[in-house]
Every structure is written in structure tokens, then in C-alpha cells.
């Protein structure tokens, strides 16, 4: 029996580009992966090319795309938490933290994946990462999982340095590309050469959240 892995991200498709290769590797190694997706991305601007969704149908479309992506990766446990897209920073903090705390206590994960607060471009990304860090930080040190963060900001090296975890996921590109293609209302990746795919998607990068430094 492997370890439990918890992923906490705000939108359908956040999992596909940033860490689907890593998650597929966890699954192959026998780990159990739970993905807590906070919203259905219902405020997304993209409706497909050519458009096949509408503002009314987009939540249902993105829910189906998320489920398909998780099947492609091999995620065994998908939780849709029902928060509103583009409003995570304004949600009741106690409710948000309480949902994450309940997952931590239920699952006892060895690793939690989320966004690095302040370095992840989208307000929903930053607010989600902040909630995870806040909640994990309240646990006794002996009970804390490692928190590995995705980050995309332009000032990364000046702010948080280089990623300390690099994962070669080239062996899992079929799963990763299937996960990305599942979100067809949002992205199209066909047309790239094999070398371009390897260059763009073959490595995944994470920053380990430094709780000790944050508490100083």
C-alpha cells in the first residue's frame, strides 16, 4: 500500500498542465491520489474552438472534462468542493480552511500539492495555496505533510528561488497529454511536434513550502 497524496487546486485543468505527469507517476507507484477541486471554472472565457459551450452549459462541460482528465491520469478520488470560480480570495476563510482541514484529517496525506501563495499569477491560485499553507501550518510539526507548490510568476528566482523538486515525466506524456486534451473547451495542443511536446511538458517543477522560514 502506497502513501496518500492530496491535491488542492481551484480550477478544472489546473491539474493537467502543472502536475498530471507527477500524479500519474504516483498512481503507478501505488499511491492513492485525492484531488480536491474547489470550483468548476464556470467563469472561464473559453467556450471551445469552434465554440461548443455557452455561459449556461460551461459548468457541466467543465465538470465532464475534469472527470475525463482524472480518468486519464488515474486519479482514484475526485472531490468537487463547490466554491465559486474567481471568488476564492473572498470566500469565508473559516469555511475554506475547514474544508481543507477535514481532508487533511481524513486522508493523512504524505504530500499535498497546491499553488505557491503570492507566486501563482491568478488570485484563485494564490488564495487556494494560502489556505492550504495556513491549514497545514496549524498542524503539529510531526503531523504535517510536505507541501509542494506550483508557481508561475515572473519574479520567481528573486522571490522564492529555483524549484527544489524537478520531475522528469516524459514517460507519462501519454497520460499528461490525454489530461490536457480532456479540457478541450479551454485548450488545444495538437499540432506540436514530439520534440516540442517533450520540451514543453516533459518536466514538472515544484517548490517545497518552507514553513520554518515563514514562521520566523
Topology at a glance:
Layout: E1 4-9, H1 14-28, E2 32-37, H2 58-73, E3 77-80, H3 93-107, E4 111-115, H4 123-137, E5 146-150, H5 156-159, E6 165-168, H6 173-182, H7 194-201, E7 203-208, H8 211-214
Parallel strand pairs: 1-2, 1-4, 2-3, 4-5
Antiparallel strand pairs: 5-7, 6-7
CATH T-level fold name: Rossmann fold
Calculate Rg over CA atoms.
17 Å
Helix content: 40-55%
How many helices? The count is 8
**Assembly type:** single chain
Order of helices and strands: EHEHEHEHEHEHHEH
How far do the termini sit from each other? 37 Å
Mass-distribution shape: globular
Number of strands: 7
Largest sheet: 7 strands, mixed
> Any low-confidence stretches, pLDDT <50, length ≥5?
none
Average pLDDT metric: 94
CATH class, named Alpha Beta
The number of domains: 1
CATH architecture: 3-Layer(aba) Sandwich
Order of strands in the sheet with the most strands?
3-2-1-4-5-7-6
Strand content: 15-25%
Amino acid at each position: 500500500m502506497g502513501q496518500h497524496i492530496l491535491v488542492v487546486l481551484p480550477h478544472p485543468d489546473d491539474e493537467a498542465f502543472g502536475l498530471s505527469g507527477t500524479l500519474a507517476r504516483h498512481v503507478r507507484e501505488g499511491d492513492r491520489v485525492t484531488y480536491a477541486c474547489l470550483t468548476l471554472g464556470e467563469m472561464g472565457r473559453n467556450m471551445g474552438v469552434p465554440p461548443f459551450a455557452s455561459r449556461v452549459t460551461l459548468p457541466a462541460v467543465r465538470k465532464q472534462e475534469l472527470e475525463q482528465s482524472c480518468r486519464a491520469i488515474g486519479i482514484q478520488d475526485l472531490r468537487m468542493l463547490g466554491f465559486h470560480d474567481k471568488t476564492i480570495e473572498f470566500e469565508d476563510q473559516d469555511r475554506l480552511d475547514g474544508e481543507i482541514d477535514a481532508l487533511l484529517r481524513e486522508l493523512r496525506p504524505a504530500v499535498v500539492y497546491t499553488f505557491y501563495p503570492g507566486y501563482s499569477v491568478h488570485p484563485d491560485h494564490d488564495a487556494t495555496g494560502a489556505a492550504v499553507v495556513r491549514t497545514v501550518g496549524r498542524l503539529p510539526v510531526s503531523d504535517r505533510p510536505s507541501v509542494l507548490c506550483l508557481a508561475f510568476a515572473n519574479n520567481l528566482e528573486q522571490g522564492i528561488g529555483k524549484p527544489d523538486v524537478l520531475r522528469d515525466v516524459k514517460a507519462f506524456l501519454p497520460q499528461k497529454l490525454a489530461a490536457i486534451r480532456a479540457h478541450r473547451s479551454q485548450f488545444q495542443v495538437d499540432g506540436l511536434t514530439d520534440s516540442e511536446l517533450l520540451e514543453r511538458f516533459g518536466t514538472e517543477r515544484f517548490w517545497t513550502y518552507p514553513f520554518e522560514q515563514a514562521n520566523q
